[in-house]
Specification:
This protein has 428 residues and is of the alpha/beta class. It has helices at residues 14-19, 21-30, 36-51, 56-59, 65-72, 78-89, 128-138, 154-165, 183-191, 202-211, 239-250, 268-288, 294-314, 359-363, 379-392, 417-420, and strands spanning 2-4, 7-9, 96-98, 107-113, 116-120, 142-146, 173-176, 195-199, 217-221, 225-230, 258-263, 322-327, 330-335, 350-353, 370-376, 396-398, 422-427. The protein has 2 domains: 2-222 and 413-427, Aldehyde Dehydrogenase, Chain A, domain 1, CATH 3.40.605; 225-402, Aldehyde Dehydrogenase, Chain A, domain 2, CATH 3.40.309. It is built from 16 helices and 17 strands. The two termini are 46 Å apart.
């Protein structure tokens, strides 16, 4: 399905739409700029419609739709969007006049959109492709969205309804369900773009780098790793269940999902003891969470098989170095190594020993990939451990149960998206 000119088209019409896209883009760029107020007002109205049951059939396809709505709804209010612009752009949101030293003529610094953004979205978060476009709209950009294969139609419908709320957005939103294998179509979209926003893993980012035009700004929101760090006494009645719910609810599919539970210890005996004690807590969360789909179970089995084959071929990690504690629809794997790595997902984290003195050398091996640490520790240790984690390269240090929560105005992977989608123009 394609969204262009405010209307839905069959995918087979891609060629005819692409052939006329440059002309439409040039016409839009020649016209008046897009007002951020118009964008905010339209999104706010759409949010109110969401409260009245809009998108109910599509939302019904989402696991834990209520939880999903509770996180996304606060981000699409007028107040939240105005705060986002202020937090991310600050004084750069409006033109300003500067007075250079030595009596040089005054200079006006004017914010402007990059121009045209191509969004190549990932499918691990429902509605994320639409929100990526929203950020492009808030900065006045024309947006071309390449949908992920996993999208179930929610993003297209959100953007179509947004255009209905504000017809001025018609020429600023184009959505294509182009397969990733269609290199020719993607190259044509990229050649129209001033910036390419790519979400996804290393393979996706590398593929985009190959066809990105030399003049296009490449904006990468790539693969990230997150973990929980447990040090000293914790509240097992609150903190442990919160961590378990996070692991189950996120299915460990998000960049902010806990992949490894690190314990502030040198002792493997402590690791095994934790696994035995935490497994019933994780089982309870799994029992209360969404039922594991057949596809998830099959993927888990395949991932475990592939991991065993890789370890056997490379000899990097022997099976004896990993002990699996199997629970009902979940597991914990006690590992003798300390590396931060992707787990088997779907409620199956790894557990490793990592004393705080070794935090920096271990985590720095994943520099550039670190995102969130869920920190459980006594309050008197929190400031020191937080500082250590930040110096290691973490961009978010939160309570373990909040690792995948979204917060209004927060940076993404240590950067503000709106700032990356904007350029500063000097006028004299």
């Amino acid at each position: 399905m394609i969204l262009a000119n405010g209307k839905l088209y069959d995918s087979r019409q891609q060629e005819s739409i692409l052939s006329g896209l440059e002309r439409r883009v040039l016409q839009t760029l020649a016209g008046p700029p897009l007002s951020s107020e118009a964008v905010i007002a339209a999104i706010d109205r759409l949010g109110r419609r969401l409260d009245r049951g809009a998108f109910a059939p599509l939302l019904a396809q989402i696991e834990q739709a209520d939880r999903y709505l509770s996180q996304i709804r606060p981000l699409i209010t007028r107040e939240a969007l105005e705060y986002k612009i202020q937090a991310e752009l600050g004084s750069d949101a409006v033109p300003c006049c500067t007075a250079p030293p030595d009596g040089l003529p005054a200079l006006t610094v004017h914010p402007a959109p990059l121009g045209v953004l191509l969004h190549i979205a990932a499918g691990n978060v429902d509605g994320l492709p639409a929100y990526s476009v929203v950020e492009g709209l808030l900065t006045g950009n024309i947006n071309i969205l390449k949908l992920p294969q996993a999208d179930k139609g929610l993003s297209v419908e959100i953007l179509r309804q947004l255009i209905q709320e504000e017809p001025a957005l018609t020429d600023y939103i184009y959505v294509f369900d182009t397969p990733s294998e269609d290199a020719d179509a993607l190259l044509r979209m990229a050649q129209l773009s001033d910036g390419i926003v790519v979400w996804g893993g290393d393979a996706a980012v590398s593929a985009v780098r190959k066809f990105a035009p030399a003049g296009a700004k490449l904006i990468e929101w790539g693969h990230r790793l997150s973990f929980a760090y447990l040090s000293g006494p914790q509240d097992r009645q609150q903190d442990w269940p919160a961590l378990a719910r996070h692991i189950v609810d996120s299915r460990q599919l998000l960049c902010s999902s806990c992949q490894v539970i690190y314990l502030d210890t040198d002792s493997m005996e402590d690791v095994h003891a934790f696994c035995r004690q935490f497994l019933p807590v994780l089982e309870q969360a799994a029992a209360q969470g969404p039922a594991q789909s057949l596809g998830a179970a099959a993927e888990l089995t395949l991932r475990r098989y592939q991991a065993r084959v890789e370890r056997a071929i490379t000899g990097s990690v022997s099976d004896s170095s990993r002990t699996v504690y199997d629970g009902r629809h979940c597991s914990l794997t006690a590992c003798t190594d300390r590396e931060l790595e992707l787990s088997d997902l779907f409620g199956n984290p790894l557990v490793k020993a990592l004393p705080r003195r070794s935090l920096l050398p271990v985590l720095r091996r994943q520099k550039g990939r670190l995102q969130t640490a869920g920190l459980l520790c006594p309050e008197e240790d929190r400031a020191a451990l937080t500082g250590l984690l930040v110096r290691a390269g973490l961009n978010r240090v939160l309570r373990a149960g909040e690792m995948s929560d979204s917060f209004c105005g927060e940076a993404h992977d240590g950067e503000y998206p709106l700032r990356r989608y904007t350029r500063m123009v000097n006028l004299r």
